[in-house]
Amino acid sequence: MKTLLPVVLTVLPFCLFAQESATPATPAEKLTELQVNNVLSQLKVLEEDILSKRGNNLSTILAKLNAAIASDQSALKLYTDCDVLVNVERKEEGKTEARQRAEQMERALERKSKGGGGAAADEGDSALAIRLGIRYLILTLEAHEAKDEDFKKMVPKLQSYVNDLVASAPKLHGRALGMVNRACSDGSPIVEAFQLDRYLNREGWSNSPTNIGGMYSATILPLAESEAKNSLPDLWDARINAEGAFRKENMTEPEFILWGQNELPALRWQRATYLYQKGPSLINAMADMLKLIKDNPSHPDAPDWVSQLREFINEASPTPVSTEAAK
Q1: Which of 34, 84, 209, 223 has the fewest CB atoms lying closer than 10 Å?
Q2: What gap in Å lies between CA 253 and CA 237, rounded to an integer?
Q3: Which residues in 81-119 are b (16+ Cβ under 10 Å) and which e?
């Protein structure tokens, strides 16, 4: 014990110093009431100026993005112009590489205008993909700037985007599917050109333009919980149907069959448990669970579903159900 004493004495002052340092220092000099009012007045003016410039700058960018989604040609031009700006002028990448990418997109657009197919058709419709990506970027920027009370207005816009994404799915295979994400994700030439990376993170918003489940989980369903609880079952059905239709176009037939056997029942169970906890009717949710178990007795998760449904029944029972009685 004696040998530890010098160490303790050495460490103790350091610990006390660390604790004192963590406490914000109190200014030795106090401001007068006149000085406080003067500083706050200047801050208010500066804040208004900052918000005005920020709003004007973002409005200009949104106008350019909206103009770009008016046509395939406009979308490709914006994308290639941003690519040259970011990778050639700023990063000094070889102009040859950037020009090759631009020419590749121009050839794809030309083939599309002529109704061409062949091997290039396996790459999907890149121009359509870029337009969808830019469109989702516009929604993301609007969502970032929306006040909490206005954020719910993003739901119909997001639902409209999901519908168009699903309708476009037959043309979003191969390289094109990746281009949807490439057009609006962090690191995209468009995002980097306009320096938008700080606008991409908004709580309650998915950053993936092809993750339908994420859009519902992050935005559509949570807002409906407080605004329109009775719509939750239909919204879940819309999510599952949209995700299934989108996957069907982007999977081989054997892959989609396996998805329907394994992932689709799991997604429906997720729907049922969600509605049990947050939906308008507990008994309807439990009836959905029971039907799902009956329809999928050989599913790998079926034993867990049975156990979980037993737990829910016990929770909802007016008196606790014994384990043996539950079985």
Answers
A1: 34
A2: 22
A3: ebbbbbbbeeeeeeeeebeeebeebeebbebbeeeeeee
DSSP 109-122: HHHHHTT--GGGGG
pLDDT tens track for 178-187: 999 999 988 8
Residue for token digits 């719509």?
231
Q: What is the pLDDT of residue 109?
A: 62
What does the DSSP assignment read for 42-68? HHHHHHHHHHHHHHHHHHHHHHHHHHH
Quick one: pLDDT at residue 38?
77
Distance CA 181, CA 126 (A): 11
Cα distances (Å, whole numbers) of residue 256 to 144, 171, 248, 259, 316: 35, 17, 6, 5, 37
> Which pTM value belongs to this model?
0.78
What pLDDT score does 1 carry? 41
Note the residue count of the chain. 327
Q: Cα–chain-centroid distance for residue 122?
A: 27
Residue 195 vs residues 4, 57, 190: alpha-carbon distances, Å: 56, 11, 8
What is the tens place of the pLDDT at every residue in 154-169?
A: 999 999 999 999 999 9
Identify the three-state secondary structure at position 23: coil
Distance CA 54, CA 60 (A): 10
The predicted model gives 65-78 an average pLDDT of: 94
Closest Cα partner for 78 from 134, 141, 147, 14?
Answer: 134
Calculate the average pLDDT of the chain.
84
